[in-house]
Amino acid sequence: MITLRHVDKVFRIPRHVTRTLYHRLTSVFAGSYEYEELYALRDVSLDVQQGEFLGIMGRNGSGKTTLLRIIAGVYRPTRGTCVVEGEVSPLLELGLGFQPRLTCRDNVFIYSALLGFSRDEVRTRYDSIMRFAELERFADAPLDYLSSGMKVRLAFSIAIQSPAPILLVDEVLAVGDAIFQEKCREVFWRFRREGRTVLLVSHDDNAVLEFCDRVLTLESGAIVREARLVEKERSVTRQP
Amino acid sequence: MSHNLRHSKSTWSRNIAIVRELAVADFRLKYHDSVLGYFWSMLNPLALFLVYHFVFSYLFVVEVPKFTLYLLSGIVFWNFFADATLSAMNSLEAKASLTKKIYFPRVLVVLASTATAFFSFIINTSLLILVVQIVDHVSSAQLLVLLPLVLIVILTLGVALILSVLYIYFRDTLQIWNVALVVGFWLTPVVYNALLAPEPLKNVALLNPIGRILVLLRAYLVFDDFPPISFVITTVLFCCGFLIVAYWLFSRNEQNIPEYL
Predict the structure, then answer these.
(1) A156-201 pLDDT tens trace
(2) How high is the ipTM of this complex?
């Protein structure tokens, strides 16, 4: 379902600020346009089967988010190929991509449009999204006014509406209180039962052990460890 | 490309929905969901119009018949061009949080920001046509006003696409473009008549695509006149060609957008 072959992702980080035309011109004429090459991913090959729940671990800066972004189609690999069969959900992550000055309601509609929902479909789901996020009272408040926990809850509630067969989740279990985390676990188990493919970046060993069939560990952009976890009783409805 | 598969049957309706939601949200932000907010947005072109009207009717008198309509129509069109290109320029940056999360055609972001400016433009143009009907007369040529209107949208979209790409590489494009707009305003026959301008300016004003669109607009709307067909065709071809080239440039750089933001 997802196939990566020898994927490298290299970012060029200029040694000097060249974000303006003025700087770029002066540095080209001075012959000093220099940059550092940062290998965010190095020779990554990966196959993910349909219905697999893949955990991705690794320290900060090891390339986890870059890997998800390449699979999401946001970044293009510098070398190598990435083939994804099936629709991918928006990347669900912290520091969320909302429009801060807009209200919760507007953000729900924008996100839902990106997920491919029509206005009518959003309207029918709207109440349940807000209920899941526990934000019914703040529907018309600009997002600026919400706490970071509230924003993550809202993002999670919208993202799980995604009908996409492939879901990308970047470290969201770390936030939210115990009750919300419990709701997230229920959702992950539902994804498992529905046979969806999930890529879960997490620092939380327990979460990875609970859900994942397989765990990758990244280090400096390369896969250094790969472990298959014991078969989960997928058919048995384990109620969390 | 690996992500072609998602271009399913509903791609079009999804893309239209994205543009609509982004444009509606932008519009709300800009006008704070209120009629009064919209009124404020009209103050800028209105003030420009009053100032130029005063200056060129009393201080330096220009020989343009029906000067009020002439000036008003020029300012409404120029204002759309300036407004749309400026807001398109940082639209990609403003929506970086979305473009870094999911793949969707980046051109939709620029389209949505142009659509927001287009909405005010349509209201202003309707008011303009109404004013012409009241103070002047109804003529058959006025039906052709649709042509310069479509042309200015095509040209503006092309410029917006190019500027939005330049801006992700070079952040001082914004300052440069602000200056270019000031100079461009005077190289475009907004307040003066291109045909009566002195020689070098006349040529610039008539080669300038916005200048040509304005000539068409005034001919149809104000003077009840039909410019030569060759003039019309070259202007149409230029605008369409420009948009195609701009879109080509944009799509070549599309993949770089999230990385540079």
Answers:
(1) 888 888 888 898 888 777 666 788 888 888 888 898 889 899 998 8
(2) 0.77
Reading the block at residue A93, the tokens are: 């992550």
Residue B194 lies in a domain: yes
Q: Is A94 on the interface with B (CB under 8 A)?
A: no
Q: Which residues of A touch B102 (CB under 8 A)?
A: 72-74, 88-91, 114
The first and second tokens of residue B159, run together, are: 């410029």
- In degrees and rounded to multiples of 5, residue B44 shows phi and psi of -60, -55
Q: How far is B23 from chain A (nearest CA, A)?
A: 10
Interface test mutation site (partner B, options A1, A2, A9, A21, max chain B beta carbons within 10 A) = A21
Contact A118 B17 (CB under 8 A): yes
In a domain, B4, yes or no: no
Question: Does the predicted model carry a pTM greater than 0.90?
Answer: no
What is the extent of the structural domain holding B145?
Answer: 10-260
- Residue B125 located in a structural domain: yes
